[in-house]
Design brief:
CATH superfamily: dinb family like domain
Number of domains: 1
Organism: Massilia solisilvae
Radius of gyration: 16 Å
Number of helices: 7
Protein name: DUF1993 domain-containing protein
Number of strands: 2
Largest sheet: 2 strands, antiparallel
Strand order of the largest sheet: 1-2
Order of helices and strands: HHHHHEEHH
CATH class: Mainly Alpha
Structural class: mainly alpha
InterPro entries: DinB/YfiT-like, DUF1993
CATH topology: Four Helix Bundle (Hemerythrin (Met), subunit A)
Pfam families: DUF1993
Shape: globular
Distance between the termini: 20 Å
């Protein structure tokens, strides 16, 4: 059985961004119940040289929209990185979901050999669609998603594996 590029991307991003949004709901409720200033969680990080929660969520959403746009052969939408609340981060996730769900299934499904060129750390990188998705976009997406989860779990938010995986 062959898995299409669409099935390996859009549904995966949809599921995991949905779980990230639900995790942010729990984090906001946690902060409210314990009278923690939301900014304390939004700016929390695992180590001083790592990005804070807000940036981890922004980057996860960026990898989802960027990967799907590149696979579909359309321009990647640019979002301003101005989110400062849990609600604004959930809105960014919602905007990302609306974008990726609106892309033509056929364009993504036929993208395994599509040429994808992007700049990484100032250097141009060339990929074909399938290696781009499987070896670059998904690992980066999961890294930032996992780091966001770990920041909140480390901060005492009561979330677990089921929250991370979400519903499918």
């Amino acid at each position: 059985m062959t898995v299409s590029m669409y099935d390996a991307s859009v549904p995966v991003f949809r599921q995991m961004l949905g779980s990230l949004s639900a995790i942010l709901d729990k984090a906001e409720a946690h902060a409210s119940a314990r009278k923690i200033e939301p900014a304390a969680l939004l700016q929390a990080r695992l180590y001083p040289d790592m990005f804070p929660l807000t940036r981890q969520v922004q980057i996860a959403a960026d990898f989802a929209k960027g990967a799907c746009a590149r696979l579909a052969g359309v321009e990647v939408p640019r979002y301003e990185d101005t989110e400062q609340s849990f609600g604004e981060l959930r809105q960014r996730i919602g905007k990302t979901l609306a974008f990726i769900e609106g892309l033509p299934r056929e364009a993504i499904a036929a993208s395994e050999a599509r040429d994808i060129v992007l700049t990484v750390a100032g250097n141009p990188r060339e990929f074909k669609g399938q290696p781009y998705l499987l070896h670059y976009a998904l690992p980066n997406f999961y890294f930032h998603l996992t780091t966001a989860y770990a920041i909140l779990r480390h901060s005492g938010v009561e979330i677990g594996k089921r929250d991370f995986i979400g519903s499918f």
